[in-house]
């Protein structure tokens, strides 16, 4: 039998994940508008629990869900992406974890 190759465990990243930056951006907009998560989720057609997971950076939504949530906040996907990008300009960005 061949030798077993062991790879080192990945180091924990201190950078902000893209999904975390997007979630932070969506949450900031919702709070700035004084809206409840249930109301935005209803307009976007998603469960409030799922929107909460997105806002906390725990879920990486599909492009369709991302567009629906942005639209529920009267934003375009591009605007959310620009704001999220400005959040990560303050530190490093990780596109995958």
Write a short abstract of this structure.
This protein is mostly helical and 97 residues long. It is 55% helix and 4% strand.
Layout of helices and strands:
Blueprint: E1 16-17, H1 18-32, H2 37-44, H3 48-55, H4 63-72, H5 77-88, E2 93-94
Parallel strand pairs: 1-2
Helix pairs in contact: 1-5, 2-3, 2-4
Describe the structure.
The structure is a single chain. The protein is mostly helical. It has 5 helices and 2 strands; from the N terminus they run βαααααβ. 55% of the residues lie in helices and 4% in strands. The chain has a two-stranded parallel ribbon. The protein is globular and about 60 Å long. Mean pLDDT is 86; it is low at 9-13.
Number of strands: 2
Shape: globular
Residue-averaged pLDDT, rounded?
86
Question: Nearest-angstrom radius of gyration?
Answer: 17 Å
Find the structural class using helix and strand composition: mainly alpha
Tell me the number of helical segments per DSSP (H or I, 4 or more residues long). 5
Question: What is the H/E string?
Answer: EHHHHHE
Q: Biggest β-sheet, characterized?
A: 2 strands, parallel
Low-confidence stretches: 9-13
| End-to-end distance | 33 Å
Q: In which order are the strands of the major sheet placed?
A: 1-2
Task: Provide tags for this entry.
97 residues, mainly alpha, two-stranded parallel sheet, 5 helices, 55% helix, globular
